[in-house]
């Protein structure tokens, strides 16, 4: 699967943005996604997220790095996972996005920082919400804890559905001074 471009970017081999992204351009600059969220890869993502089957995270990182090398996207300075709330992190015991992000950062030669961004509000799970509710749910849920001024941030997540969480994170990062945000996601729900 090719790179999905962000606002104002046209790159050879890049997949065009979906209708929603054209109508309402996201805050992030690009998204690198391995594949659409469907069988059999959806099972690997669910096993990683809910059953601590962490071996899949290393493979997701390896494949994301391979796609990055072909994507003609600048390397991020810092790689950070989509943060979980403290409550969810305590319950789950790990952050599945960090399980992908840490080995990915190593492969990219970027600083890996699991605590760069904090989820300051425990939000409802996004999976069962409509798009407008998703946006409202995460709109002010994040805080940047360190200086990102002038930096390119790579944000890692296991699954991108509507993009609302990643858009809210990109907005928060750019408000804090980041110049570019690239998403690295294992699976992406197909858009139109």
UniProtKB/TrEMBL annotation:
InterPro entries: ComF/GntX_DNA_util-trans, PRTase-like, PRTase_dom. Residues 100-187 form the Phosphoribosyltransferase domain. It comes from the Bacteria. CDD domains: PRTases_typeI (cd06223). It holds the Pfam family Pribosyltran. Belongs to the ComF/GntX family. PANTHER family: DNA UTILIZATION PROTEIN YHGH (PTHR47505). This is ComF family protein.
